């Protein structure tokens, strides 16, 4: 049986004003999975990392994705996977999506690419359902497709790739816990029409900025008047990080997914590194441990290498 | 003194899901204005149409735009204008915007283009303030710039042109009155977050569709779950027109501005004409008089010709 090595990138969902509809893939960090077919209908999971995630397929994000694919194809096919996570669970940069998307793309590859990209995304969404209780695709889609993805609709699934300039991305993951389900629950279910209008002006501006390679427009559009004001209270230092990073030259940024990671987009590496220094300063002062990444937009999504 | 002839096109604001932020210019109908400078600080208005609009500059949309420009430049400059409206006031295809934008562009031209495009848009917005009580730019901007305009923000003004495919536009103006102020007042000031998310998915999809020349995506994104369900009750036959036009091949469409006109986008002229026939059928049956237009996107905005 052939074995493949899969690289599933981290992702930034929402992109500030695009709550639930936009996401972007990162070149770092990236999970690594080794996957092979089994000739019996079971899923075997090995962990090769420090996170002690469940190896029961029903309770594992990659596991439920494999199971959903096996349910679809029937017969005596199963999967064995070794997961080496580099995207820390709960970081807000698409850790569960990387496991889910990596599993779905890997399985489809091993099965001879019998499923369309939309189908692969839908299988992967079963992993998000397990992780957060909600089937969403704003990490899954960019993880699979690379670049910036627009998820116009989930039912029916309508995913589109948005052209994306060469941007640098700085991410800081403060080592605190923000549960996605909590971050969802604190949102108000009603919003002011005037705020919604401002938000959709920003979303339209952000998409236009990506398409037209207009970095200033991207920067002006990275504004969220609905979600960020509520969610950012869960992230100590958020306002200071944001203000200092923009002063240091970031185009803009905000909460990555539901947090606690914060991301900033910059037009060049020098700016992205200055931004990293500003982020570190704030959390050094507050006294919260962190990881940072200075990376670029991953244009290709999940990558597969053949193994012997 | 030199005299110029100005063609100011009709416009479709909102574009279904882009309430207050998107607009598109039409090649038909178009107002015609003849404008010249005066060497005294007054505004003289002549009407050359059937609409009997006020000629008191303080009460005339073009008049207040000229006055706002005169206030800015000071001195002994004034304007004389003859207005020949072809865009019926109250039609919902940017009649007041054409007068306001035509006046602002004409004045700037006669003054040697001393103002930036943003300034010209801002002068023209004074006309919209008079017409509807609100300074908005979703008709003004496309009227001046042509094509599709995104108004990301009014304060501060942030206007961007969006690339636009070659599209056909069918418009029907049923001869009923929907006052812009009424159409604003019936809107709910609170919206469900889930509806807002669906709306901004559609807006992002529409902008991406325009930028990527993806007509199917444009069609799928022409959906409004917030404004149209409320406003369309003011327009008899709306649901039937929309359903029949889509069945006849329209990509999609909806209320033009605050109505009562309805517009539909199509990929070719044959479809646009079928759509026109469907629109007529509905209003013939209901027994409401109408005008229709089958036209294309105006890519250039207000056009100026020199007169002797």
Fraction in helix of chain A: 25-40%
Q: Specify the structural class of chain A.
A: alpha+beta
Low-confidence stretches of chain A: none
Query: Would you count the extended β strands of chain A for me?
Result: 12
Q: Specify the overall morphology of chain A.
A: globular
Q: Domains counted in the coordinates of chain A: how many? A: 2
Sheet-strand content of chain A, in percent, reads 25-35%
User: What do we call the CATH topology of the largest domain in chain A?
Assistant: Ribosomal Protein S5, domain 2
| Biggest chain-to-chain interface with counts | A-B, 42 and 42 residues
CA-to-CA gap between the ends of chain A?
Answer: 10 Å
Contiguous helical run count of chain A: 10
Function (chains A, B): Catalyzes the ATP-dependent phosphorylation of L-homoserine to L-homoserine phosphate.
Domain GHMP kinase C-terminal (chains A, B): 207-284
EC number (chains A, B): 2.7.1.39
Organism (chains A, B): Terrimonas ginsenosidimutans
């Amino acid at each position: 049986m052939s074995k493949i090595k899969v690289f599933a990138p981290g992702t930034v969902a929402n992109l500030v004003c695009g709550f639930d509809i936009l996401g972007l893939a990162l070149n770092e960090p990236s999970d690594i999975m080794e996957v092979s077919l089994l000739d019996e209908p079971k899923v075997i999971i090995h962990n090769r990392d420090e996170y002690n995630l469940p190896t029961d397929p029903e309770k594992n994000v990659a596991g439920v994705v494999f199971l959903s694919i096996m349910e679809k194809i029937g017969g005596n096919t199963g999967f064995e996977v070794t997961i080496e996570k580099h995207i820390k669970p709960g970081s807000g940069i698409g850790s569960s999506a990387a496991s889910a998307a990596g599993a779905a793309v890997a399985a489809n590859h091993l099965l001879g690419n019998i499923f369309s990209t939309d189908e692969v995304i839908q299988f992967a969404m079963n992993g998000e359902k397990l992780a957060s209780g909600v089937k969403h695709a704003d990490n899954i889609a960019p993880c699979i497709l690379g670049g910036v993805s627009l998820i116009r609709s989930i039912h029916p699934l309508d995913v589109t790739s948005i052209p994306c300039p060469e941007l640098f991305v700085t991410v800081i993951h403060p080592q605190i816990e923000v549960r996605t389900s909590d971050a969802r629950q604190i949102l108000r279910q009603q919003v002011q029409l005037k705020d919604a209008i401002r938000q959709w002006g920003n979303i339209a501006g952000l998409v236009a900025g990506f398409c037209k390679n207009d970095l200033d427009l991207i920067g002006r559009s990275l504004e969220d008047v609905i979600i960020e004001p509520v969610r950012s209270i869960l992230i100590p230092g958020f306002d200071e990080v944001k203000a200092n990073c923009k002063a240091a030259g970031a185009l803009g940024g905000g909460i990555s997914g539901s947090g606690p990671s914060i991301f900033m987009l910059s037009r060049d590496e020098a700016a992205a590194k200055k931004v990293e220094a500003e982020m570190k300063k704030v959390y050094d002062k507050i006294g919260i441990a962190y990881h940072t990444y200075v990376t670029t937009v991953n244009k290709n999504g999940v990558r597969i290498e053949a193994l012997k």
